[in-house]
Amino acid sequence: MYIMAIGWGYVALMMALAEATNANGSILGAMLTFVCYGLMPVGLLLYVLGRPARRRRREQQAASVEPDAGGHAPGAAEPGSVAPVRKEP
């Protein structure tokens, strides 16, 4: 996956270099060429192809979270703490 990104980045860099050194080219055009033909497509490619790895990592993190072993009901106040004040309905 990374070899494609490196190869495409090289091609985009060469395109930008050709734009910058051309008689009618400019540095701004070279930067836009590199961003629009290089960084954006490579970033999108890495994001899309990295989705399965992100999913596996998220599932592993969810499986490693242990349930609360405190013995209290969720949201129950600790002994000695002040209960929240609520308005009467």
UniProtKB/TrEMBL annotation:
Keyword vocabulary terms for this entry: Membrane, Transmembrane, Transmembrane helix
Stretches that traverse the bilayer: 28-49
Highest taxon of source: Bacteria
Provenance organism: Malikia spinosa
Lineage, highest ranks first: Bacteria, Pseudomonadati, Pseudomonadota, Betaproteobacteria, Burkholderiales
Transmembrane is among the record's keywords: yes
Protein name (database record): Transmembrane protein
Region (Disordered): 57-89
Bias-annotated ranges (Low complexity): 67-80
